[in-house]
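Re-running Angiotensin-converting enzyme 2 to confirm reproducibility after the cluster update. Everything else is unchanged from the original entry.
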Amino acid sequence: MKGDSSAASYIHLVHHLIEKCLIFRMSKEECMEALSKNANINPIITSTVWNELEKENKEFFKAYQAKVSQSKIEDKRLSEEETNCLSVDIIVSDSPKGSSDD
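Result of re-run:
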């Protein structure tokens, strides 16, 4: 019976860590990578627990996926806007000041 208790507590730990990943709006793949790298949890275990959570909380995960997807699009757009602004700043700062063709 001790093995069952140990396995259950391990799954509970993975569940808890997945919830932490959700707070940071990580995708399933990002969560699997983070837990593998930082908590030494096999990605297959993370994936299995994530899938079970999805089954139990379909509406939550549907809304979560939409929010994460929208957030990623906004982050990409923001990054492109920042790059464009930086390019404009560089062009403006590199242009000769005080020169006049009049």
